[in-house]
Amino acid sequence: MRRVYSCMVLLTSFSFSRAFHSSSPYYWHYLRRTFRGTPIIGMNTLVSGDGPADPIEMTDDERYLFDLNGYLVVRNVFAPEQVQQANAAIDRHSHEFVERTDGALRNAVAGTNFYGTGPGRKDLGKVLEWGLDSQVFKEVLAHARLVPLFHGILGKGYRMDHLPFIIAQDKGAEGFQLHGGTIDCVSGEYNPHLAYACHQGTIRTALLGCSLVLTDHNQDDGGFCIVPGSHKSNFKMPKGMVNGELYAEFIRQPVTKAGDVVLFSEGTIHGALPWQRDQQRRVCLYRFSPATNAYGRSYFGHEGGAWPVAIYDDLTDAQRAVLEPPYANRLDRPNINADNSITITTRDERKKQHDKEVFGTKYF
Asked: Residue 335 in contact with residue 328, Cβ under 8 Å?
């Protein structure tokens, strides 16, 4: 079936030359467009044959499904070769995994459906600080397929809010009891730090989970689970549901393949089921937020008052823009364009000069 996407096609000599370097996100974007037989129609549409090229705006279908369910599975964002590259990097750092063996660190209550039968979950940090081994993980920050979705859900000027990390589960490893919610699933209180809203067709979530899937998740394998539509719930969960003991039919485990990306509002109640397969489960979890929002504090807690220094190695301008601290777009914030270039959003120079005269700085 052929689909028509309304969009603006931007082709520049810069992006075309960048397309042929496998280290660039443009490379995979160009291959998908080429080998899917996607012709360019005029200046406003892309028509797909076997599958659509990367849209430059969040599509109506994507907007509807995210608003309906509170999450979206984005298929085939990364090629098998890139998944293999990411897993090989994890293998080289596997000795750095930290297993949650202490009872205080377990994410599920013993004896419940989320607890599992074996070891604790394993966490691996510093995935953006591994030099060449970080290449695939850094591409998530401003990937051509994901940027339109980030803009549609978070707005332009979106930013990385948490340090990303690898989550691994061996067979039988515990999951994570249900948590989160615009209305907290346990307390029933409004949670502005995670909240989802849609106003006059504009979607916004205060915190967006982004999970790069690195192993297949087949039906009943376990792993990430979610309660579709719970981002709009006005009440706390019934007792027993948080631990999976009641109403399990409303808890969904999305079927995903390695290379997919799962985007979910942290306002949508979610968790993880115990892992059932022999192959180790692996995902890389990121959180992003709108330009002016901040939940985490790692963006100013390191040398130089920013993220860890090693993260900044070999970044594109677009990737670097995602590491900006929280502040409004009009205060010289870099915004990512459709071709992955950067535009600085700014105020009138005379107003900045006035603020400098008043406050001693051009930023009030």
From this structure: no
